[in-house]
Amino acid sequence: MEETTPRLVSYMSESINEISAALSAFQGSVEQPKLEKEVKVKTKTGGSYSFKYADLCACVKAATPALKANGLSVCQLISDGKLVTILSHKSGQWFKSELMLPNQTTDYQAYGSAITYLKRYSYCAILGIVADTDDDANLACGNQAEFKERGHQQPAATFTGAQLKEALEELGRCTTPDHITSVWKKWSTAVPALCAKGTEFYQAVSAKSHSIQNPAK
Question: pLDDT tens across 139-167, in order?
């Protein structure tokens, strides 16, 4: 009987000193992706809850500057029914991870969606970045989930008319850009909603700054 030798799978290069240092620097400088999408989960017991996440595009966008700065790159390949994710360093050193893909069907759109889903998880796992809040394994347990975009909402207006009046009066007494900055800092710290983009005070500050910096001749 012919003897067979099992194939050994390596998940890192022989030396990893340089890529480890680069990955450490990357993780210390990368800005985590913004969680701008939301999933509504319906549990088997009839309840529901939501959690936020960042899609693959947001993850790549967030990681790219720090990857470039540290001589790192990520490559994702499909081979032998697996998604292979390779983190490479300019020195030639590398780390690798593999995930089994689901069985391919004729529903190519669904199959492509599954690949994108796994690419996001593998990409984030090999870099150590966070792309979602913990869903406590509810999706893995078969609960239903509804995905939706999270729009950019204005903060709730939680300031009073008296606060707006006082802030506008202080702004009216400003005669220099530094004075305007001081008033803005005061109110943005004390009443953040008052300084939200689009509020009356926000617009008044913009107009006041313009008039002081560009006095009429």
Answer: 444 445 454 555 544 444 467 888 888 98
* CA angle in degrees (0–180, nearest 5) for 127-133-136: 110
Are 45 and 144 spatial neighbours (Cβ–Cβ below 8 Å)?
no
Task: Mean pLDDT check: name the lowest of 68-72, 75-79, 106-110, 182-186.
Answer: 106-110
Cα separation, 63 vs 73, in Å, equals 10
pTM above 0.70, yes or no: no
Q: How many CB atoms lie within 10 A of CB 70?
A: 21
Q: Contact 59/131 with Cβ under 8 angstroms?
A: yes
Confidence of residue 3 (pLDDT cuts 50, 70, 90): very low
Token match 């903060």: residue? 155
Q: Is 103 helix (H, G, I), strand (E, B) or coil?
A: coil
Question: 176 vs 26, 173, 212, CA distance in Å?
Answer: 42, 10, 7
Instruction: Calculate the alpha carbon distances from 66 to 129, 148, 177 in Å.
Output: 12, 29, 35
For residue 191, the SS3 value is coil
| Dist. CA 157–CA 118, nearest whole Å | 40
Give CA 132 to chain center in angstroms: 8
Question: CA-CA distance, 1 to 77, in Å (whole number)?
Answer: 36
